Amino acid sequence: MPANELKALVFDVFGTVVDWRSGVIAACRGLCADRGIERDWAAFADAWRGLYQPSMSAVREDRRPFVTLDRLHRESLDQLLREFAIEGLSEAEIDHLNRAWHRLDPWPDSVAGLSRLRRRYVLATLSNGNVALIVNMAKRVGLPWDAVLGAEVARQYKPLPEVYRSGVEMLGIAARECLMVAAHNSDLVAAAACGLRTAFIPRPNEHGPDQQSDLAPEGDYDWVASDLLDLAQQLGC
Amino acid sequence: MPANELKALVFDVFGTVVDWRSGVIAACRGLCADRGIERDWAAFADAWRGLYQPSMSAVREDRRPFVTLDRLHRESLDQLLREFAIEGLSEAEIDHLNRAWHRLDPWPDSVAGLSRLRRRYVLATLSNGNVALIVNMAKRVGLPWDAVLGAEVARQYKPLPEVYRSGVEMLGIAARECLMVAAHNSDLVAAAACGLRTAFIPRPNEHGPDQQSDLAPEGDYDWVASDLLDLAQQLGC
User: Fold this and answer.
1) What span, in angstroms and rounded, lies between the C-alpha atoms of B93 and B95?
2) Beta carbons of B130 and A171 less than 8 Å apart
3) Which end of chain A is less crowded, N or C, counting CB atoms within 10 A of the terminal residue's CB?
C-alpha cells in the first residue's frame, strides 16, 4: 500500500520499542545483589512476564474492573517474591523494583528510528502500559511520542478491539490511515481486524537466546522491516 | 511552596498556551476573503468562543453523552454560519474552518518556556480540547508535551473535578505534586479544590483589546508569573 495514505503510527512498546527482559533482569540483580540474595534472575523476569497475559485476562473477561498495568505488575511481583523466597525487601524497595518497567532501555535503533518517523507522522503509543509508565520511560531515554494512548486511556487491554478503535478515534483519523507497529503477530492480527495497517518488526532476542515465538511474520502485513530505522527508510522518512 | 515537591505540570491550552482569537479571526478571514464574503470576524470569533461554555454544559449536566470539542465546535460553527448569513461554503471548507482550532499559534513565550520547563518536569495538557486537536496543534508549532490528557481522556469537561483527578491519577503522582498552569481563575480554583498546586499566567490580550476578565489573579495561587518563561525562571528551570 502507498505510505502517503498514512497519518499516524501507533506502537506496541514492550518488546517492540524497549528491551524489557534485560532491563528487568538488571533491576532485580542490582537490588538483590546488595543484600546477598542470588537467584536465576532471567527465570524471575520470564516468570514475571509470564503472569502478564493471565493478569490482564481478568480485566478482559470482566472478572475485575480495569486496573493499571503498574497494579497488575505489583500483584505478580508480590506472588513471585513469595515463590522465589525473596524476603526482607522494604515496601519502598519493592515499589522501586516494580517500577523497573518504567526504566527500560530502548533497542539500539528505537530512538533514532522513531525520531525519523516523527518528522512525517504522528507517533503514539498503543501499549498495555499505563500512562505514567510510558511517560516516565519516554522521559528517561528520549522516546519522542506525540501522544500516549492505549490500555489506560481505553480502560481495556489489547488485544481487545476497543483499544485499537479508541486509539484511532482519539487521533481523529480513519483506521486505514493508522499503522500499528509491533513485534508480535497477535497484536498485528488484532489491529488488522480493526482496519489498521500493520508493520511487523522482528525482535528475535526479546525473550532471550532461546526465543521460539514471533521470529517471523505470520500474517500478510503491509510492511515488514528489520528494525525501526528500516521502517523509516521504507516509509520514505 | 518549594518547587522541588513538583513532579508534573499540567496546562490549560486555549488562551494560556495559544492565542485562539487571532488564529480563528485569521482563518475565517482567509477562507471567506477569496469568496468576497466580508463580516466582522472578531465578532464571529468571539461568538464562536461564546458558545464554548454553553456547549460543554450539556455534557457536564448529563443532558448528552460525552462528545469531543471538535464536535461541539462544529455544531457551534454551523449555528453561527446561519446567524452571520455565510453561505456557499463546501463541507470540506467548513471542516477546514472548524479545524482552525488545530492550527492556532502559541504566544511568543510558549515554546521556549515549555521547553525549559520540560527539562525538569513532565508536561501534560489538561485542556478541554480533544486529543487530535491538541496533537495536531503541538505538531504544527513544536509544543513539547510529554502526554495529552484532559477532557477526551477523562470523558468529561473542566471545570468538573473528574478531569483534574483523572490527569493526576494517570500521571501516577499525588495531587500536591502536580501544578496546574492557566490564564483563567476559574480553572485554577477548580484545580486547587482537587488538591493541585496552581500557577496563574495573565494573558491580557486573549479576548482582544477590551478584555475585562482574568486580568489578575483572584485567588491565593502558589505561583503568579508574567509568562511561561518567567514561570520557568521561578521554578529554577
Assistant:
1) 5
2) no
3) N
Contact list in B for residue A162 (CB cut-off 8 A) is none
Across the beta sheet with A197-200, the strand order is A147-150, A122-127, A8-11, A178-182, A197-200, A223-224
Q: What are phi and psi of B94, to 5 degrees?
A: -65, -40
Q: What's the whole-number mean pLDDT along residues A127-152?
A: 98
- Sign of torsion over alpha carbons B89, B84, B134, B23: positive
Domains defined for chain B, CATH in brackets: 3-19+104-234 (3.40.50.1000), 20-102 (1.10.150.240)
Closest by Cα among B185, B189, B177, B179 to B117: B179
User: In a structure prediction context, what are the per-residue pLDDT tens digits for chain B, which is 237 residues long?
Assistant: 567 799 999 999 999 999 999 999 999 999 988 888 999 999 999 999 999 999 999 999 999 999 999 999 999 999 999 999 999 999 999 999 999 999 999 999 999 999 999 999 999 999 999 999 999 999 999 999 999 999 999 999 999 999 999 999 999 999 999 999 999 999 999 999 999 999 999 999 999 999 999 999 999 999 999 999 999 999 999
Do residues A133 and A156 touch, judged by C-beta distance below 8 A? Answer: no
* Residue partners of A214: CB distance under 8 A and separation at least 6: A183, A184, A185, A202, A203, A206
What ipTM was assigned to the predicted interfaces of this complex?
A: 0.95
Which string of b and e fits A202-220 if b means at least 16 CB within 10 Å? bbeebbeeeeeebeebeee
Distance from CA of B214 to the nearest CA of A (A): 30
Mutate to test the interface with A, among B170, B171, B173, B177 (most CBs of A within 10 A): B170
Distance from CA of A222 to the nearest CA of B (A): 24
Cα torsion through A200, A206, A207, A212, rounded to 10: 30
Q: Whole-model pTM?
A: 0.96
CA distance A121 to chain B (A): 9
The Cα of B39 is separated from the nearest Cα of chain A by a number of Å equal to 30
Q: How many CB atoms lie within 10 A of CB B212?
A: 6
Within 8 A of A138 by CB-CB distance, chain B residues are 146
Q: Which of B130, B145, B170 sits opposite A131 (nearest CB)?
A: B170
Number of cross-chain residue pairs from A and B with Cβ atoms under 8 Å apart: 59
The beta strand positions in B32-135, using DSSP E, are 122-127
